[in-house]
């Protein structure tokens, strides 16, 4: 990883921590898949866009309805628990 890419990742992580009021280090708890039968959704202010069959990194189990996740493009957001399947 180049120095420039490393700095960009650090900046994205700081923005994530500020936007979601997340404290501590960002660590992946587990990986889950978006249900292939679910409808695809656009992302919103704090919601992650969903694509069928996509594998997401789970950062935090926030409540009974939502999970804080990261996708392969290093974008963060909330995802409904109802559309997530364990790997």
Automatic annotation (TrEMBL):
GO (cellular component) term, any one: plasma membrane
Keyword list, A-Z: Phosphoprotein
Protein's gene: Pram1
Any GO BP annotation: protein localization to plasma membrane
Name this protein carries in UniProt: PRAM protein
Residues in Helically-extended SH3 domain copies: 16-85
Pfam families xrefs: hSH3 (PF14603)
Coiled coil: none
